[in-house]
Design brief:
This protein is mostly helical and about 170 residues long. The protein is elongated, with a radius of gyration of 23 Å. Helix 1 runs antiparallel to helix 2 and helix 1 runs parallel beside helix 3. Helix content is about 65%, strand content about 0%. It has four helices and no strands.
Length: about 170
């Protein structure tokens, strides 16, 4: 969360460039969310209540949560974990619930989208950890590696360990 709320004047040139890219990505995500949240219900209104309403319900349950999850995952993998993106995408839905659906209870989907975004942030965090350590998740990549991270393989291709060193096959 602290990456979005910094004093811009105190950043050096490289940090300013990264910050500008991060804000540009946030604006792009919010612009596309605006199209999804507001444009889709408006366009589906022309299809009629049955067909448009059916597509809209499917969108509420599948398209919107997948989009919020993907945004959270991308943001977290690139710039670190933050609640700003899931919170903004969840809050953006609340006026949609009041304007297009006319039901304040539909605003609860904003909370659902926030939770999905946080799951995306957690998934992106796991991908960032995996990328950083260059190993599989939860130490899976350690199975064939010694203390230095080198794979212990003999010429025959078999993985072997003996006192932390690779055994030479003859």
């Amino acid at each position: 969360m602290s990456k979005y709320f910094v004093n811009y004047q105190e950043l050096n040139d490289k940090e300013k460039q990264e910050y500008n890219l991060m804000i540009k990505q946030l604006y792009t995500m919010l612009a596309f969310a605006t199209l999804l949240y507001y444009g889709l219900p408006f366009a589906l209104g022309f299809l009629g209540e049955k067909l448009g309403g059916g597509i809209l319900v499917v969108s509420l349950m599948s398209v919107f949560p997948v989009y919020v999850f993907a945004c959270g995952m991308i943001n977290s993998a690139k710039y670190g974990t933050s609640v700003v993106v899931p919170l903004a995408l969840g809050i953006f839905f609340i006026p949609t619930a009041l304007i297009f659906y006319g039901n304040p209870a539909m605003a609860a989907f904003g909370l659902v989208y926030f939770i999905m975004g946080m799951f995306g942030e957690f998934t992106g965090f796991l991908f960032k950890l995996r990328k950083k350590s260059k190993r599989g998740l939860f130490g899976i990549g350690k199975l064939g590696n010694d203390q230095n991270g080198k794979t212990n393989r003999s010429k025959s291709g078999k993985i072997s360990k003996k006192n932390g060193n690779a055994r030479k096959s003859r």
